[in-house]
Prior knowledge:
- By secondary structure, this protein is of the alpha+beta class.
- It is 23% helix and 38% strand.
- Bound molecules: zinc ion (ZN).
- The site of zinc ion (ZN) has 6 residues, from strand 1 and strand 5.
Amino acid sequence: xxxxxxxxxxxxxxxxxxxxxxxxxxxxxxxxxxxxxxxxxxxxxxxxxxxxxxxxxxxxxxxxxxxxxxxxxxxxxxxxxxxxxxxxxxxxxxxxxxxxxxxxxxxxxxxxxxxxxxxxxxxxxxxxxxxxx
Length: 133
Ligand code: ZN
């Protein structure tokens, strides 16, 4: 794995949190994007070389809405940048991790992504992501 690509934070109200994080980081989000397949609205902030993703669930079935119901707002996942997501999925399966998405899917910010189940990684949801351009 190359580096932490971004940290994902679950929020109840993306509009309010965009304002809050703009104040916190001193710059507005460089991108906002709805990912219909995941039922989420997202925004991305940069702080130097690092990125933060805010996620709001668009409906009750959204994984983000379910997460907030169970655990409240807060850090939702850590995304790792990988060069070959298919090879990483195979490698991690062999290492005993539970992969939620056996084949990667389209995520926000021009990435293809797959998640590891938090039960197999100390309670932390790990997102693998690879540039899709
Ligand atoms: Zn993410």
